[in-house]
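To: structure desk
From: M.T.
Subject: fold request, one chain
Message: Could you run this one when you get a chance? Sequence is below, nothing fancy, just the single chain.
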Amino acid sequence: MIRQILMIVDKDSFSTRSIASSLMAKGLVPRPAAPQYSAMPKADDCPPAVFMCLQDWSTDHKFLMPVIRDLIRDTGALLFIAGDRPHLEESVLHYFPKHMITDTFFRPFNAAQIAERVEKLYDDHIKNPSNRERLKVPQKVTQKRILIVDDNPSSLRALRSVLHAYYKVVMTDSGMGALTYLEEQTPDLILLDYEMPVLNGPQFLSMLRARERLRDIPVVFLTGKSDREVVMEVMSMKPEGYLLKSTPPEEIRDKIAALFAAIDQRKARM
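Reply: Done. Structure tokens follow.
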């Protein structure tokens, strides 16, 4: 079995090459990935371990770190972090619960010792039956497709990370982009931001209901406001429901699963 490890490095250096070479000498195969959202694997394609070498990190942490955190959470993969102590403690480590970090390595690096430590923890992890079960990615419970429409990139990424292991997720950052997608595709559900520039959520829903082929697609509004007036305004459009953007990830998954179950039951009675 090939023992892969996802290695996230922002800049090639003597230190990172030494660590990679030492890992390979132990039979661990580094799978390089740039520190970018688009370079992160899906949960079902993530190796059992992730190694982040952040000594020269220049990426905006607030966007990438939550993606990596969700990847570790969803897969149970080991997480190793290496870099300068002050930088890691000030800018990186606080993004991850302590139990989620397998080990940290601070400069100056000893590549051989790092590789030895990683190999031991990697093999212990794989050999432990409970860990093997935890590594299994949930099978998609459905082939249903969800279209997420939101002009906020952070919201798009957060929702995708919550749902992509369970549904086919398509994202667009504008109502016009969504309409273009809907010209050829019909999703099973649309998660629609209530407040967007140019074409806002209510306007988009009105256009949707004016088209015979699209009018019955269930729509759930996304809103960042929870006061009574806003909620009543949202529900006056009679969507399938609404979700607060602050809703915990597990609750979002549960609510969408319950929503699909209710929709399927309704269709069965028709």
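Reply (cont.): Strands lie at 3-9, 28-33, 49-53, 78-83, 103-106, 145-149, 168-172, 189-193, 219-223, 241-244. Let me know if you need anything else for the meeting.
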